[in-house]
Hints:
Layout: H1 2-21, H2 30-40, E1 57-61, E2 72-76, H3 82-95, H4 97-105, H5 118-128, H6 133-144, H7 156-160, H8 164-169, H9 174-188, H10 194-199, H11 202-209, H12 217-226, H13 239-248, H14 257-263, H15 271-290
Antiparallel strand pairs: 1-2
Helix pairs in contact: 3-4, 5-9, 11-12, 13-15
Amino acid sequence: MTGSLTNSAVAMSLRKTLAAVIQPSSPPDSSVAAVNREISEPSHSSPSSCRITFRPRKIRKVSSDPLDSSPMIITASPLLSKSTVNLALLHLQSSDELLRTVIATHNDPPVFDSSSPPFLSLTRSILYQQLATKAAKCIYDRFLSLFTGGESGVLPESLISISAVELRKIGVSGRKASYLHDLAGKYTSGVLSDEMILKMSDEELIDRLTLVKGIGVWTVHMFMIFSLHRPDVLPVGDLGVRKGVKDLYGLKDLPGPLQMEQLCEKWRPYRSVGSWYMWRLIEKARTKLSK
């Protein structure tokens, strides 16, 4: 009887101890809640030329509380306004001391101001591939002369009607001509559309756009950052970003994709902005070497 009472008392004591330890988490600090509220609200300064509203991207992060099994969700708005970019800078400066130094030494803030429709942006990306900027712009200007209305006339139906011979006459290679026709064909067949692209997740964009001939993961990453203004893109295959990460963290060798993901995890949900500063870091290093 005594043993039974003792065991019961121990069990009750354990239950009381667990109840005292596992308490509901306290409400978030008011300043943090304010920032989260501001991040989650859509920007009202989006370019008027955007036909479809960009949706904030939800980024899941693991809670630091070992007793809290639910993931914390941070919502980052597209990089369409100065206030959104400023929020990204605040996050990066607080989460990465080394990156904070880079940000402090660069006066001009990041700019992600392209407002071209997705089809035009992808077309331009194909035309600019593996060409010096000056040569690419020359060909692009000739390309636009083939359409009534310039850039506004670059539509899938119009592009697919221009023959490869006509494209080669303005300096577009036969291979790129086939890429452009493949992109236009996927639009006219309904496989892709600007509306679909704007609604796709980052993962869906990579899966669907790399089906187009001539478009690889790197091109999709650049498209997501500079055309769609996605805030949390890490172009692990970009040489400039890899060199920047190597210099920033004092690595002996260029980091591979997995190491890039691990090192830049702290930048979430603004890895696009962190990548932008890696390009600036490398540019600054090149300038010093040329002097």
